[in-house]
């Protein structure tokens, strides 16, 4: 019984922090998904062509996500990182659309383009993250 009470008390203490975080993640995710869908409608890729819109969305989202640590203002409010990271940028980027586009390329008989797209997306995202980390390290050195 005492163990249950301790667990319950710990849960009650964390609940006020968890619920707002989940709320901002949900709100950010909705905004990110709407932004991604809007860009897809504004810049549609022809069927069977390289899906540049999704590629740019994923690479820019990876870069921005990696840059979150370099923005001091985000440390001032505990809910900004979950809103922007898991929420907005999580809803903005999309592995599921990347997978579906690669599947369509394979169905269309273009395994080379599908492979280039998948490997290229991953490589470009990693390069974006690396560039963001270099920027973050440079910023930290300049603020010392």
UniProtKB/TrEMBL annotation:
Subcellular location per the Swiss-Prot or TrEMBL entry: Cell membrane
Sample GO molecular function, one term: metal ion binding
Alphabetical keyword list: Cell membrane, Ion channel, Ion transport, Membrane, Metal-binding, Sodium, Transmembrane, Transmembrane helix, Transport
Reported regulation of activity: Na(+) is not transported, but it plays an essential structural role and its presence is essential for fluoride channel function.
Domain of life: Bacteria
One GO-annotated biological process of the protein: cellular detoxification of fluoride
Residue ranges of the TM segments: 21-43, 49-71, 78-95, 115-135
Catalyzed reactions: fluoride(in) = fluoride(out)
Membrane topology type: Multi-pass membrane protein
Pfam families per the UniProt record, alphabetical: CRCB (PF02537)
First-listed, main subcellular location of the protein, grouped into a coarse class: membrane
Record GO cellular component, one term: plasma membrane
InterPro entries the UniProt entry points to: FluC
Binding sites annotated in the UniProt record for Na(+): 90, 93
PANTHER family: FLUORIDE EXPORT PROTEIN 1-RELATED
Function text: Fluoride-specific ion channel. Important for reducing fluoride concentration in the cell, thus reducing its toxicity.
Family in the record: Belongs to the fluoride channel Fluc/FEX (TC 1.A.43) family.
Name of the protein this chain belongs to: Fluoride-specific ion channel FluC
Organism: Nocardioides iriomotensis
Gene of this entry: fluC
């Amino acid at each position: 019984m005492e163990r249950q009470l301790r667990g319950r008390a710990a849960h009650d203490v964390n609940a006020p922090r968890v619920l707002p975080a989940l709320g901002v993640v949900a709100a950010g995710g909705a905004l990110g998904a709407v932004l991604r869908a809007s860009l897809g409608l504004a810049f549609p890729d022809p069927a069977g062509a390289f899906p540049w819109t999704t590629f740019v969305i994923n690479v820019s989202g990876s870069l921005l996500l990696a840059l979150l640590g370099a923005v001091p203002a985000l440390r001032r409010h505990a809910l900004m990182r979950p809103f922007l990271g898991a929420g907005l940028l999580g809803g903005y980027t999309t592995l599921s659309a990347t997978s579906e586009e690669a599947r369509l390329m394979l169905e269309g008989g273009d395994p080379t383009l599908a492979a280039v797209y998948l490997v290229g997306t991953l490589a470009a995202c990693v390069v974006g993250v690396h560039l963001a980390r270099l920027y973050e390290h440079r910023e930290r050195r300049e603020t010392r």
